[in-house]
Amino acid sequence: MKLGVVIGVVWASRKVEALDACRMYIVQPVSSENNPVESPLVVADPKGLAASGDKIVYVTSTDAVEAFDSGFVPVNASVIELVDVVV
């Protein structure tokens, strides 16, 4: 699991059918001190949890696919939780 901040929204006129109801965000990975740690990436939000400016927890690889109820979806990263506070 990794921390990130939603910095933008991806608009796609065509998507794989399994992603039709799924929002896609541009996320800046951050450390627990809120410092950028990597390049921004596109993250799927299968549960509709996030919005611009939110701090999130996201997963990558096989875990990203498992965040969807529908089974296989071609994504590399998915939002799994919102973050209120990091202590």
By CATH reckoning, the class would read Mainly Beta
For the record, the count of structural domains works out to 1
At CATH level 2, the architecture is Beta Barrel
The average pLDDT is 94
Uncertain regions spanning at least 5 consecutive residues: none
In helices, the fraction of residues equals: under 10%
Q: What oligomeric arrangement do these chains adopt? A: single chain
Q: If you consult CATH, what is the topology? A: OB fold (Dihydrolipoamide Acetyltransferase, E2P)
Q: What amount of the residues lies in strands?
A: 35-45%
SSE string, helices as H and strands as E: EEEEHE
* Total helical elements: 1
Characterise this structure.
- The chain has 1 helix and 5 strands.
- The chain is mainly beta.
- The longest helix has 5 residues, at 62-66.
- The protein has one helix at residues 62-66, and strands at residues 2-10, 23-30, 41-45, 55-60, 77-82.
- It has a 5-stranded antiparallel sheet with strand order 3-2-1-4-5.
What attributes does this structure have?
single chain; 87 residues; mainly beta; OB fold (Dihydrolipoamide Acetyltransferase, E2P); 5-stranded antiparallel beta sheet; 1 helix; 5 strands; 39% strand; globular
Summary, kept brief:
This protein is mostly beta strands and 87 residues long. It has one helix at 62-66, and strands at 2-10, 23-30, 41-45, 55-60, 77-82.
Give a topology summary.
Layout: E1 2-10, E2 23-30, E3 41-45, E4 55-60, H1 62-66, E5 77-82
Antiparallel strand pairs: 1-2, 1-4, 2-3, 4-5
